[in-house]
Structures are given as structure tokens and as C-alpha cells.
Design goal:
This protein is about 30% helix and about 35% strand. With about 400 residues, the protein is an alpha+beta fold. It is globular and about 60 Å long.
């Protein structure tokens, strides 16, 4: 397999690469571990709706690949590479999208290597733009007000007490608007800098920094991580150690987490031989979670997008049992989640790729001056409506702070 033709190589900080136009983005890590994939232009775009959206997008990419040659790119990926964002619900009005960029950038060790990602690629790498100033955004409740969310949680707890429902994940939304288009590149820079342990993404206006890996595929090896059960991070190490100990021994949080971990492991076991770690606590800048690492070996070759379709939706973002939880959350939330809590990520021509669950995120509105933010929490027996509201507030913080006129160092 030949190497992809290099368009240019530029030594620059990742922040500069993110400011070259408004690229497709997948970035993670800090210091020497920091890396990113970026895309510019469109060689192809595929859209899909409904229960077959993962299969349809995968088939579209396969058709595109049949017309192109494959080439190894710096960083070990195989071009062409596609970026994907999918809707949460089968019946969502929001399209799931797969985009094959014309130019692909691999940023690593302070160097951006740009290659042609498709035949007959034309166009130059956009120049680095100057950052715009962030203005204070107008925030207003979306479909669910704060009191409406408390009522929804209380109704869910009643359903849990009398029916077959074991867990349901309820979300709420906020609408943020500005007087001029948002600086998405600056937003991405802030998100990646503040959340290096997470997966910072931008695909078709869906932008965020998710802590939860849904499916990473490399050959036959697949890995996932289930996150559920949470507590606040204060920044005081002594206090946070105490909080982590309480989280690790919390019956309510372990019950919520067990549903999420079992959901991923059971679904992954349909296509792979699976291994699970014991639950452990991971700490993020504003919140800590119980986490279970799930790995396996695929029995048959499958793309990262196909595996993401097998695993979605997990109990971490929907509930248990899945079909019943999905119907209850749709009723109690009262809005279309769009791409919130759906898989988002990338895959290459070999089928390798990484997909996170679209959390700590927002969808930029078409006109560019607004963004709809989302946050949710798992409801189980014993959940308290005010505590669950506070959890969603903590989960809004990464996006809220990244959009603030006050830039965190």
C-alpha cells in the first residue's frame, strides 16, 4: 500500500491548526500524547435516517472506497478517512451524516501533515485566522425548564417503582444565542485544552468534548468504556479523594453503573469475545465517574461505524430495558435529541476508527449565531430530582465555560 500524497507539512501548535477554517475535528490527549485528525472540504457526503442509518452510512462509504485507492497516512490511519455524526433516535428528524473531507490533516508532535484524502483533490489549506472575541451569550431553557426537568425525574422514579423499567436517562437542553456567528475554532481550542482526557469533536456543526468512548476498532481488536454514576470535582485533592471514595461505595451509583456496563458488554458480546474490568473512578476537570473498561476481539471483520451501531444506544444514555427506556425518555423529555448522545467519530478505509458518545456537546444552529446544548443523567430507584438537576448543571459546564467571554487559562 502506497503513502498518501503529501499536500504540505507545517510545524505549528494544534491551536493554529484548529484555526485553519472550521475543520472537521477529532482530538484528544495532552502534551506528548496529544493528537488530532482534521478535515477540510468535502469529497463526499452521505446522509441517512431511521433504524438502518449506521448500515446505510457504512454502505455509502464502502461505495466511495470502491472508486478510490487506499494509502497509509502519517499516524497509522488509512486514507480515505470519513468523519461521522449520527442521530440518537431511530425516528429523529435530524439526519445522520458521514463526510469524506477533500484534505486530511494529521496533527502530532507539533507537526500538521496534510494529505489528499480523495482523488482529484483540489484547494489549498486555509490560512490561520485570528480568534474572535467571545461575547456573553443569552441562555434560555429549551423544551424542559428546570422545574420541568425535576417533574420529569419524579415521573420517571414513579415508573421505576411500578413497572419493568430499571433505569432511564433523562436529558434537558439549553438554547444559547449571540449577536454574531460563534467562533467554532476557538470553541474547539478551549474544549481540547480544558478536557485533554476527553474526545474533542466537530462534525457538521455538532461540537463537544466527550469523556465516553463507545467503540474503538483496530483490526479485530475493539474497546469501549462505560461511564455512569457521577460526583462533582472541586479541585481540592483531599476533598475529591473523599468524594471518590464515597462514589466508589455508593449503592445508587453502582446500580446505575451496572446497567450501563452490562448493556455495552452484552451488546459487544454479540460480535466479539469480551473482557470487562472492575469498576473504577476516573476524574475529569469538573466531574468524576464510575468507569468500566470493556475490550474484545471481533469474531468477523467489522468497521468501527458498524460496531458503534451494534452498541448504540447503551444504558448510559438511554436506560434499561432499552426499548422501554427509549419510549419513556421520549415522552418525558418531549424533544428530539438530534445527534446528542449519538455516536460521533471517524473511520478509515481499513474500517479502523474511534467513536465516542456525543456528550458535553451542542449543535450549532444553521445560521451560526446559536447553539443548542444538552446534558442528562441516569435515573434509578432512589434518584432525587434536585440532585439530578444539579448533575445536569455540572455536565453543562464544559460547554458553558468554553463559550464564556472569560477564557480559563
Amino acid at each position: 500500500m502506497s503513502a498518501a500524497p503529501v499536500v504540505c507539512t507545517v510545524a505549528e501548535p494544534l491551536e493554529d491548526s484548529l484555526r485553519r477554517g472550521v475543520p472537521l475535528v477529532w482530538a484528544t490527549g495532552a502534551d506528548a500524547e496529544r493528537r488530532a485528525l482534521l478535515g477540510w472540504g468535502e469529497a463526499a457526503r452521505f446522509t441517512a435516517h431511521g433504524a438502518q442509518r449506521f448500515t446505510d452510512l457504512d454502505a455509502g462509504f464502502t461505495t466511495f472506497l470502491a472508486r478510490t485507492s487506499r494509502a497509509v497516512v502519517s499516524g497509522g490511519v488509512t486514507a480515505p478517512v470519513a468523519f461521522v455524526t449520527t442521530s440518537f433516535a431511530d425516528d429523529s428528524a435530524t439526519a445522520s451524516v458521514l463526510i469524506v473531507p477533500a484534505l486530511l490533516g494529521v496533527w502530532q508532535d507539533g507537526v500538521l501533515t496534510v494529505v489528499a484524502n480523495a482523488p482529484d483533490t483540489s484547494g489549498a489549506l486555509p490560512p490561520v485566522s485570528a480568534p474572535a472575541e467571545f461575547e456573553e451569550l443569552d441562555l434560555r431553557p429549551g423544551t424542559l425548564t428546570r422545574e420541568g426537568f425535576r417533574c420529569a425525574v419524579a415521573a420517571a422514579v414513579q415508573r421505576l417503582a411500578v413497572g419493568d423499567l430499571e433505569k432511564v436517562v433523562l436529558a434537558r437542553d439549553l438554547e444559547a444565542t449571540a449577536s454574531r456567528p460563534l467562533d467554532v475554532s476557538a470553541l474547539l481550542t478551549r474544549l481540547q485544552r480544558a478536557n485533554p482526557q476527553s474526545y474533542t469533536f466537530h462534525v457538521d456543526g455538532m461540537v463537544g468534548s466527550s469523556p465516553e468512548m463507545l467503540a474503538a476498532v483496530d483490526g479485530r481488536h475493539v474497546r469501549s468504556q462505560a461511564l455512569a454514576g457521577s460526583a462533582p470535582v472541586s479541585g481540592d485533592l483531599t476533598l475529591d479523594d473523599v468524594t471518590a471514595t464515597r462514589l466508589a461505595s455508593s449503592g445508587k451509583d453502582h446500580a446505575e453503573h451496572a446497567y450501563a456496563a452490562a448493556s455495552v458488554a452484552e451488546k459487544l458480546a454479540t460480535v466479539a469475545a469480551v473482557r470487562r474490568s472492575d469498576p473504577h473512578v476516573i476524574r475529569l476537570p469538573r466531574i468524576m465517574h464510575l468507569a468500566t473498561d470493556i475490550t474484545g476481539e471481533l469474531r468477523e471483520p467489522a468497521s468501527a461505524l458498524a460496531v458503534a451501531g451494534v452498541l448504540h444506544p447503551s444504558a448510559a444514555v438511554c436506560g434499561t430495558p432499552t426499548a422501554l427506556a427509549a419510549s419513556v425518555l421520549a415522552e418525558l423529555e418531549g424533544f428530539d435529541r438530534g445527534r446528542y448522545a449519538g455516536p460521533v467519530g471517524w473511520l478509515d478505509a481499513s474500517g479502523a476508527g474511534e467513536f465516542a458518545i456525543a456528550l458535553r456537546c451542542g449543535q450549532v444552529e444553521q445560521h451560526g449565531t446559536g447553539i443548542r446544548l444538552y446534558a442528562g443523567g441516569g435515573i434509578v430507584a432512589g434518584s432525587d430530582p434536585s440532585e439530578e438537576l444539579a448533575e445536569t448543571a455540572r455536565k453543562f459546564l464544559p460547554m458553558y465555560e468554553a463559550l464564556s467571554p472569560v477564557d480559563r487559562p
